[in-house]
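Final report, results section. Input specification for complex C-07:
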Amino acid sequence: MLLQLRGIYKWVNTGINRTFLLKDINLDIDEGEFVSVMGPSGSGKSTLLNVIGMLDDFDEGTYHFMGEAVQQLKEKQRTALYKQYIGFVFQAYHLIDELTVYENIETPLLYKGIKASERKALVADMLDRFQIVGKKDLFPTQLSGGQQQLVGIARALIGNPKLLLADEPTGNLNSKQGEEIMELFKQLNQEGVTIIQVTHSEKNAEYGSRIIHLLDGHVERKGQ
Amino acid sequence: MIWNYFKTAWRNLVKNRSYGLINIFGLTIGLAVVLLIALWIWDELSFDRYFKNHKRIALVLQQHTKDNVTYTNWSLPMPLADALRKDYRAAFEGVSLLYSGVYNVTFAEKKLSAKGMFMEPDGPSMFSLELLSGNKNALTDPASVLLSQSLARRLFGNSNPVNQVIRITNQFNVKVAGVYKDLPKNTSLSEDAEFIAPWQFGVSNWEWIRKEKDNWNYNLFKLAVQLAPHTRMEDVTVRIRKVLAAHITQAPGEQVVTNLTLYPMSRWHLYDFDEKGRIIPGNLQYLWLFGAIGFFVLLLACINFMNLSTARSIKRAREVGIRKTIGSRRIQLIAQFFGESVLTTLISFLLAILIVQLSLASFNTLTNKNISVHWFSGWFWLAGLLICMITGLLAGSYPAFYLSSFKPVKVLKGLFKGGTGANLPRKVLVVLQFTISIFLIIGTTIIYRQIQYAKSRPVGYNREGLLSVHMTTPEIYARTPQIRNELLASGAVQEMALSQCPVTEVWVGSDGFNWKGKAPSVDGTFAVVAASVEFGKAAGWQFVEGRGFSKAFPTDSNGLVITESAAAYMGLRHPSGTVITWHGKSYTILGVVKNVMMTSPFGDDSRIVFPLLREPGNFMVLRMNPGRPLSESMKTIAGIFQKHNPFAPFEYSFVDEEYAKKFVHEERIGKLATLFSGLAIFISLLGLFGIASFMTEQRTKEIGIRKVLGAPASGLWNLLSKELMMLVLIAIVLAIPAGYYAMNSWLHRYDYRINVSWPLFLLPALASLLIALCTISFQIVRAIRANPVRSLRLE
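Structure output:
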């Protein structure tokens, strides 16, 4: 069991009203799964992903990640946890414009305190794998959307995470680029990386082994 | 890791050049100001440190306490030196009388005027004279002198002066025993010692010194001592306290306590004495003042940095969010942003040093110093880098904590708006900046007003067209009548007179005056200026009653002319004809003149008595004929003097120029205040410009929409400028009381001063509003004129 959510609630208070972003979420995810989270806009998909990725907190319930009770961890411990085990891929890529492709991919390793020689080796491997070696000294603004997303994924993967979270990874890409990315995900999953993706597209959802539907912050139905 | 931060910081700087430049520019000015002030303060604090024994050298002073008021006097009688030397040998390693004056010095055809100091044999080693040639102990020969390096060069060019013979006041031949290195500008003796002569020289050659050799009541000389090692200043002070009192004669019934005290060299330059005889900060207050100003200017630059960095936060927000998602902890982000501010500060620091080096020449002229950048001193770089680090950390503190606090979810979703450029902390900072700047402007305005006021004060005589000649050789004394006749005959001069001191100074104060109705508690001291018969006419006295001296009345030799203040002090309504006594002798008051201002235009000391000059005067006053062109008259006069006194240079000065020198100190303060308030307001405006431009950039969309909906230009202008102008108004309201309080305290040190009234505050307030308005208008007008279609399309 990689992670376990029990009775997760998240709300915001606007005056006297309480709007639920997440309502009574119960979820078990095993290692090696490829889960797709679907639902209309405002259903809480991204919120759920952020909670799982420990980027956001929740108001009620328990969340166990690899046996650790996340709600009881301090910021420092939480950061250490997701730094080590989780990689995040965004819809808008979110690369640091002031750094080159090489440096963008390298940055998570810096935060992990990895030595220079080791970093070089790991980044070189990653560049190779995604076949973007020739682009390593370019800046994000010089790349196409698909290439930027590749870099984003490379950055998410460089730390060898157990879990990859992807928030609409192909949202800003055309169909061909999107397909390439999804194939990549499939391959990664086969290599053992657990993937949870949020997506609008039925087609993309089918790459996964499981689909979760959300509506108004609540799990609608779990399906295959 | 650090390298990654550095790369990001550098590339950020380059990408947002204009904001980066504003930041660097502001910080550079702030750091340059701090550096200059620090160097100046260092120079002031190291005053007199050139003297190797500076910790053990002191001046002996006498203090008279009467009715709870203590007067401190630097002048002492000659026999005290021998008494200290003989009876207190254990306490003192060196004792030396000091006396200085201006003298004619001639060698071959070169005739110069030079400042000379007379010292006893202990003197040269006490004052660490570094001999470049010759032997400083050769001063044991009374007919020898030591020359300073620059004086030697002026007299002898490049040739060796040692053992050459020069002539002093055209009377005495002396041998040059050696040449010493010029004393640095930041020593107490540098202005007075172009040559050093042995005390014996003065005693053997000048009657007026010789005859007072054993007179304990004749106070004219300074006395410097060097304490023996392992003695403490306080202990020795106690031991010698009553030495003078034991020897002087005191008027019967006078309740005066006379004490000697030691004034350590470390306190000479920066301290003073108060009316209780205690040592209090004097010039030291200026160090504090300028230190504070330097700190404030730097603070303003840091505030700019903070404001601009946080205002532009939206651009960095995304990066903060990303970094947090890929594993950065908050503290690492804080470190990153501190790194950026330190980097900016380092760049500014290097530029600042450059600016300091380039502006040192003018700064030295302005402050009358000889400051240089200590390029090779380790301490300098250490202190500089420390200032740099502190500034970088200070400036970067608020942005670092603010930016690192962003929640990644919010910023990456684009929910973070970054503010429209003026939230509360930023507003507070802008108000702070402007308050400080306006405060400085108010201060500058008042300083200049005070100077103007004192300059326009009536002086009681006509100082235009008045020439003052210093009489320095016996030839002149002897030939005064002939000189006068020739001057008047030439038509270049309307009147000529003699006086004991120059028209712009008072050298002598005397007690012992008594008059009918004088209460015993009233002090009978007046300033005394002895002058010849024609003095009143030459200077242009304005008589209130009575008359001046006249050759027609031989009894006038016991006559006095007094000023209005003196008459009022004595409580005499119509003093003409009244007889008063001075040291027991009777004098008749001949007339009363309007107050003559001979000392400080800022003070209130016009209580002067003019007796008739009996001995040869020291100064000649010449009333120039206004009908003649100046250059012609000067040539004529110079010719007459040369004829009668060929061995001395014709030394003169214009009284109005001499008078103008009295304002030098205050004018210097005024100039420095102008400089610093100019810089302060400039930095504040820089910040305001940055905020205004950012604010308009943020609100581009809003402006576009409003324009489309039909808002008039004036309405938009109001909307955008309201917020910032309100801040400037608040700053004005805060600065005025602060300025009022501070300037009132400053003005109280002057007896003659302006009243602080509201027009003095109006000008700075209006000026600041105006320039602030212009600064932000530039940006606002540009934004208003932008095409709304463009601004909306970018959304």
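The radius of gyration of chain B is 34 Å. Chain B has a mean pLDDT of 84. This concludes the modelling results for the funded period.
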